[in-house]
Amino acid sequence: MLKALIFDVDGTLADTEEYHRLAFNESFAQAGLEWDWSVALYDELLGVTGGRERIKHFIQQQHPNFAEEEKIDDLEDYIQGLHKVKTVLFNEKLEQGLVSLRPGVERLITEAHKHGIRLAIATTTTMENVTTLISCTLGKASLAWFEVIVAGNMVAAKKSASDVYDAVLSQLSLPASECIALEDSQLGLKSALAAGITTIVTQNHFTRTHDFQNAALVINHLGEPELAFEVLQGNAYGHQYVDLAMLEDIYSHTQA
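Request: output the structure for the sequence above.
Response:
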């Protein structure tokens, strides 16, 4: 039987990517850098998982001589500093209430918790971002609902590698066959599938062109009783929003 739900964070629980983009740009400005990540550029940069990795990739591609020109002895340390400031700026936006959960997220998490379905998080973002987002949207008490949280800096390889999901399964002491993952991106889907987990994808603006081959279901959001989701790929078995009854249907069909 289905025993656990494993959630990605950015783009899955909430549409956070635009606020991440803005925080990156603000951190660059504070550092005196004339870098501006447009929406189109950030679309491309999301193909690299992890904020520090994203900055490093951008420098390698757009400013390969940056360290020499700016006389930076330790580029990794410099990137770490930029990302630390970005994290502070992003969390300020969360604390200001600028970010809300996507449709159906609070309802599904609350229902799962009420019925004893175990909850976990597998993400490439920082632990600070996770805990602040959950506290500012679901309330601080809800942090205890998530039995396991594995963040990107806690594993050797980030998504699309299976490391974060492998770590979650290990800490839950559950086989992949007893879990369902909820993701929003191609890299996240690949990560969950590599761990052997049935995966539902809730597409968003930044992932609308991604390839979601082998997802159990692709929808535009989790839906609400008064706000049906749109099925983009797969079979929803007559359901119009994601609840435990629907997840049991998907689970039973994928395990058959």
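The chain is about 45% helix and 10% strand.
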